[in-house]
Structures are given as structure tokens and as C-alpha cells.
Amino acid sequence: MKFFTAMAAAILSSAIISPAQEKGMSAEEIANTIILDDAKVRNLGIKVVETNEADFETTVFSIGRIEEIPRQHSVLSSRIAGRVVEINAVEGDTVSKGDVLVKVESRQPGSPPPVIELTSPQDGLVMLSHIRIGQPVEPANELMDISDLSTVWAVAQVPEKIVSQLKTGTQAHIRIPALGGTNFDGQLIRFDTQASRQGGTIGAIFQIPNPELKLRPGMRAEFSIVTSKRQNVMSVPRKAIQGDVAKREVFIKHFELENTYVRTPVVVGEMNDQYAEIINGLFPGDLVVTDGSYSLGFVGAGSGMSLKEALDAAHGHEHNEDGTIVTEEQKAARAGSDGHDHAEGSASSSQLIFMRIAVGILLVLLVASGIKSSKDAKTIAQLSKTKN
């Protein structure tokens, strides 16, 4: 009796565990798994970032221009009439306060006539030059414009309805298309004195440090003005998000297989100029593809090694096409096939059927044994009563 019970339990356990071991990846999971070789990873320029919770900014978009700061602009002129005999700076030159920029021969009598040196009134960049050698000059003439661009203004035209959300010190991320989309950070210092009646906007003036003098007056600027900030929000760079509004998805780097990426659906919340809030679909620590994400969406089967090859290389043992481990029975079936192809897993399936039949037979034997034991017990009880 005990022997039958133990045997049934062992076979039943095997029958239950086997399907779990046999379970592989579904067709959809395999289709969403992209395995590349090293060359394709380099060609696609794939880069990943680790997802985590961070501050998330709510922003308002606006456009505007870079402007020089009026108090940092000066004009070079001559106090006496004469003619230009020497020019030491041209447009685009950087000058320092006190540098001799122009020499003017005076009209006052003398042999030779006296020459007046005109020096730079400030540090800065020569923005405009209005003179040539031999050109006559008068005290009313502007000879050069010099501007200090180490700090500039970025003026955004913002709708009047959001002015109440903007306070002095409000930050903005400012993108300059002319500089390849380089971003600068600025702080709101004031508003223009008048609003635009036609456009319903007002100029919001942000001050930006410009130590490398890359920003020049007149450059177009795109503003992402921060109106609020939330903490501990899961987000990823916007360029990681693929798909349409109804079906957003990202590509996650497989935690185990090299050069393997998994297409993963996500639920996206709010988006700003740089990041997208992720409500569902990702966990902290996931490695999400940013650069190359768009191209990766068009990479199909045959782009690299198969799932089977990747698993074999990672684990050091053989796998089936669906990712399951090749069993000893499957290996034996292949070895004994004499070159004939068999469907993978057929030996394992036969074993499973045999185990289930064996369990059924053993259960029947157990029931029969139980009935027999019950009858024997009743017989012994009746004999005992008879003797008494």
C-alpha cells in the first residue's frame, strides 16, 4: 500500500513539473525579441539609459529670439572732425577696454596734422563697423558698435494667460536650432513693458550666461518654460518612446542576453520637452534604448542570431527554438533519428503521456487496494464478533 502511494506521488510530481519545465516563449514574445550582432549595434548607434524615479517638470513651449543686453552695448565716436587714417579692429574682433581701435587725423592745423587715438570704451565684440580708411568723420558719426555678449537675454513671446504662472527666477530650457539644438538654461528676470495687442503675447526676458560667446543677437530660440515640478516620477527620454498615441512602446535591453532588446508596451502620462512620464510598463533599473530606438523598431527577423543561438551562448547548453531547454529525451531522439528530422519535443510529449497513463493506472490500483482493505477489515470484524 505504502509502495503504491509513494510511486503515485513521484510520478504525479513528475507529470506536474514537466509542463513547467517545457514552457517556453510564446510566438508574440519571440516576435518582440530582437537579437543583433555587434556590427548592427554599432551601425544603429544604440545607447541605453537606466530608468529611475526623478523630478519631473511641467513645461510650456514658446519661441523667441536672442538679444543683447542694452546696458552692455556701447558706440565708438570721435570728438573732433577729421579723416580715418588707421583701423585696428573689424567686425567680429574681440576687444578690451582701452584698446586703440581707430586713429583719426585732425583737421586742426599742424605739420603733420595731429592724430587722435580712439580707444574701446568697454570689453566686448565689435558688432558693427561704419568706417573705411580715408573716410571723413564728424563728432556726430557712429564709428563702431561694441557689445559685451558674455551674458545675453533670451526673449520669449508667451501667451498672456500663463503670465500669472511665471515668477521672477522661473527657469527655462532654451534650445538654439542654429547651434545644432544645443540647450541653455536661463532665469526669468522681467517682462517687456508692453504686450502685443495683435498676438496676445508679452515678452518674457530670460538671462543666459554666454561665456563661449556662442549665442548671438537675432538667433531663433525655442523655450521650455518650467511652470511646476513633481518628485519621484518614473520617466524616460522622449526619444525612447515609439509607436502611435494608441500604442506606445519602448525597447528594453535584455538583462541576460547580450545585444538583445525586447519591445515592451508602456502607458505614457505627461510629456515635456525632454522626458515622458511612464505610468505603467517599466521598473526602476530597466535599461531603455534611447539613441537608435526608432531604427530598432524596423529591424525584423534575420537581423542577427536567433533566440536559440543567443540562449545557447549565454547558458552554455542547448535550447529549442522557443527558448526551452533541450531535454535528454530530445537529445536521444535526435541521436537515434539516423539523419531523419523529428519535431522538437516529441519524445518529451510521449513521456508526458506515458506518465499520465501510469498515474491513472496507479490511482485505479490504489482505489482497488483501498476497497480490498476495507472488505478485509469488515471480514475480520465479523469473525471477531462470531468468536465472542
Secondary structure blueprint with pairings:
Blueprint: H1 2-22, H2 27-31, E1 33-35, H3 38-44, E2 48-50, E3 52-67, E4 73-76, E5 82-87, E6 94-95, E7 100-106, E8 115-119, E9 124-129, E10 136-137, E11 144-147, E12 151-159, E13 171-176, E14 182-196, E15 201-209, E16 220-237, E17 242-244, E18 247-253, E19 260-265, E20 267-271, E21 275-280, E22 287-289, H4 293-296, H5 307-315, H6 328-335, H7 346-387
Antiparallel strand pairs: 1-19, 2-22, 3-12, 3-16, 4-11, 5-7, 5-10, 6-9, 7-8, 9-11, 12-15, 13-14, 13-16, 14-15, 16-21, 17-18, 18-19, 20-21
Domain CzcB-like C-terminal circularly permuted SH3-like: 235-296
Transmembrane segments: 353-371
GO molecular function: transmembrane transporter activity
Could you name the ranges where pLDDT drops below 50 across 5 or more consecutive residues?
Answer: 9-23, 341-345
Structural class: alpha+beta
Rg on CA atoms, Å:
41 Å
Dominant shape: elongated
The order of strands across the largest sheet is 3-12-15-14-13-16
| pLDDT averaged residue by residue | 82
Strand content: 35-45%
The helix fraction, in percent, is: 10-25%
Tally of strands: 22
Distance between the termini: 31 Å
Largest sheet: 6 strands, antiparallel, barrel
H-E order: HHEHEEEEEEEEEEEEEEEEEEEEEHHHH
InterPro entries: Beta-barrel_RND_2, BSH_CzcB-like, CzcB_C, MFP_Cation_Efflux, RND_pump_MFP
Keywords: Membrane, Signal, Transmembrane, Transmembrane helix, Transport
Protein name: Efflux RND transporter periplasmic adaptor subunit
Pfam family, one: Beta-barrel_RND_2
